[in-house]
Amino acid sequence: MSVQSPAAVVMVRPHHFAPNPQTVADNGFQPSTDGLDEHAFAASAYEEVTRAAAAIEAAGVTVHLFEDETRHRPDSVFPNNWISTHSGGHIALYPMFTPNRRTERRSDIVELLKTTYRVQDVIDYSGLEYDDVFLEGTGAMVLDHESRIAYAARSNRADPIALERFCTNFGYEPMVFDAVDGRGIAVYHTNVIMSIATEYALLATDMIVSPVRRQEIIDRLSARGRRDVIALTNEQIDEFSGNALELWGSQGRVLALSRRAYDALTADQRERIERSARLLPLDVPTIELAGGSVRCMLAGIHLDPRPGLVERHATPADAASADEVAAL
């Protein structure tokens, strides 16, 4: 099993999904959704999460699926921004940039992890929100768990103070860089332009502003046996081709990404990925209208399971209703 590829994930299924009006200003991937039918929109998102969770489980990855029945958490489908887990039994909770995302932190999810996996401590950075300091988890950072490097594109969602604090606590080296899209707009989350797998990495090389920093990142990614850095174009990034996550399934490694992202890859890029991992495209077009894709939907679990306690699927009966759970 690869240290880079989790064998279990947390997912959240929203009952009242909607694009977040508080994130549209700085999320260049979030289009206008004016005129869409609210109920049909939410129903489509619910079904997309249901099908995606089933497909990931069918690949042999454990999925803990939690329900969100509230109406005030439009981005709850993206749990990777508020929680991450780490080998040795560590959990991190993160400070969120927009106020309506801060209640996404859920104690029932943390408790499930504590009872099902070996957890030593929970480090909560959410108090930094009161100082306007933000670090949106593995959206703002892309972690190389083997080389212990935290890659982060500068943005208002990746404050250097919080990043330094995380790296000190968890033993990562920060690798900060500037990245802009084809329109010159700063990238809001690192995980839309970068995905690190076991034997390869996906990277929007042209979006990294400094040529020197770009080459340094490529060299670091190529170290320790990761032989292939696959360059993605700006157009492929617009289709979420960089927003992917390698997982460990029952038959080995799989790369979870959206159907839209898969279709944007070239035949050569797919072949290079499939030398190491099976591609697992998932249809999530409604979710993508919120400015995130498959990787954002998956909070990977890098914890050791308690023997006999990891379930394949956490049903609504297994988890408390989101209405009953107070945010941490």
UniProtKB/TrEMBL annotation:
It holds the Pfam family DDAH_eukar. It comes from the Bacteria. This is Arginine deiminase-related protein. It comes from Agromyces indicus.
